[in-house]
Amino acid sequence: MPEATSFAQSTFETLFRAFKKTDEVSEVLKMFDLSNESIQEIMNLLRKDFDKGLSANEEERAESSVKMLPTYIRAIPSGSESGDFLAVDLGGTNFRLLSISIQNGRVQDTIEIPPMTQTIKTSDAETFFNYIAHHISLFVKKHDLSNKTLPLGFTFSFPVKQSSLTSGSLIRWTKGFSASGIENEDVVKLLKEALVRKGMSSTVDVVALVNDTTGTMMSCAFENPFVSAGLILGTGTNACYMESLDNVPKWDGDQDEPRQVIINTEWGAFGDNGSLDHLRTKYDERLDEESSNPRQQIFEKMISGMYLGELARIVCMDLVNKKLLFKGEVTEKFRTKNSFPAEFVSLVESHEKHKIEEVLNTMEVAEQASESDIENLRRVCAALSLRAAKVAAAGVATIVKKTGNFTTTIAADGSLFKRHPKFRNYMQETLTEILPEADITFMLSEDGSGKGAALIAAVASQMKEQ
């Protein structure tokens, strides 16, 4: 920890000096310099939305920009789980099948990735779920799992209104899927009906509907009982955490033990009600206006990988137009929307010459880039990365303060968290500054959407037996 802190402090000092320079580039980058007071303001606003989102009052809930969805998952793994469990992980790019065998606290897993073609993505409900059930059947037979009933966790990474642990309706398709007859329908019910058609209903029991955030939390909690929240920092961002039922007035489930439930915050939409407008820059506003979903996912647009690279490109283009970068001349490639992905921000932030050259070559500006241009590009990427990490840290700190759990571990996953060379350190240092009394550790989740879903199936089936 001290090593990480000293690294982050030196980085903060470098950025601080950059922000304090009197040149025109620094005047632009100062807009992204969030003070601790602004971070505290974000925390206060988010906490208000958390409380309203959990309210039993429908009007109060409507005022909140975060949904605060009960997942109906009431416990983390205890370590006493045993047996064989399945998971189906259906996301934007992958369709995966996974089995885990838990014996004496040890986990062995098997993964297969069947193709998910555009034809299936755009088919109809029966064809779509028949395809999934067919591959479940093949998987079970191939791995000799047919002689028992297998609890299954279903990770369905699309917007879902969940009504119980085993039911949830698809609100709308995203990520290029458009299969008909599924929106507004219970996706667990549709999967179960397909399993009946394939003769698998006595072998496979769908016991949990899962999102990737709760899967992330559960995959780490199996190894670390101090995990209290799950965090996604990738293409998008979201968080979940364990909440006492006493703090969930809108809870409509049973009041039995354990008197707690994991809440899926859906915090990417924080700020959609205008609460963050005064903290956004003109560049944030332009990014939002030119996005496919204006005035939506405002918090996410300040943090996540889907938007970080484009925001950096927009800032760079402003510097180009002011003749502060590349002498005011760039290629058509650089002028093209979404041509500068978050991966490039990570490569530039590595400060490794060959990685920065890779970015410059891809953007077709290597020949004209001076040392000063490279330094300014690094400053842009650093300023935006630091702002994103501070905003994400404000979200984590809000959860920590709300639960009062100041010594805790946060399970984390996502390409931004894993691949950006400094993001984790930026977050850790910010948390040390704004919550000096806390001891918050991040734990990288390994395959949360797959292994986590199977572990949720293990916990759910154990609770079912009890």
UniProtKB/TrEMBL annotation:
Keyword Transferase: yes
PROSITE patterns registered for this protein in UniProt: HEXOKINASE_1, HEXOKINASE_2
Pathway: Carbohydrate degradation; glycolysis; D-glyceraldehyde 3-phosphate and glycerone phosphate from D-glucose: step 1/4; Carbohydrate metabolism; hexose metabolism
The Hexokinase C-terminal domain, residue ranges: 229-459
Enzyme class name: transferase
Alphabetical GO biological process terms: glucose metabolic process; glycolytic process; intracellular glucose homeostasis
SUPFAM superfamilies noted in UniProt: Actin-like ATPase domain (SSF53067)
Domain Hexokinase N-terminal: 25-222
EC number(s) per entry: 2.7.1.-
Keywords associated with the record: ATP-binding, Glycolysis, Kinase, Nucleotide-binding, Transferase
Catalytic activity entry: a D-hexose + ATP = a D-hexose 6-phosphate + ADP + H(+); D-glucose + ATP = D-glucose 6-phosphate + ADP + H(+); D-fructose + ATP = D-fructose 6-phosphate + ADP + H(+)
Classification via Pfam families: Hexokinase_1 (PF00349), Hexokinase_2 (PF03727)
GO molecular function: ATP binding; D-glucose binding; fructokinase activity; glucokinase activity
A single cellular component GO annotation: cytosol
Family: Belongs to the hexokinase family.
PANTHER family: HEXOKINASE (PTHR19443), HEXOKINASE TYPE 1-RELATED (PTHR19443:SF16)
Protein name as it appears in the record: Phosphotransferase
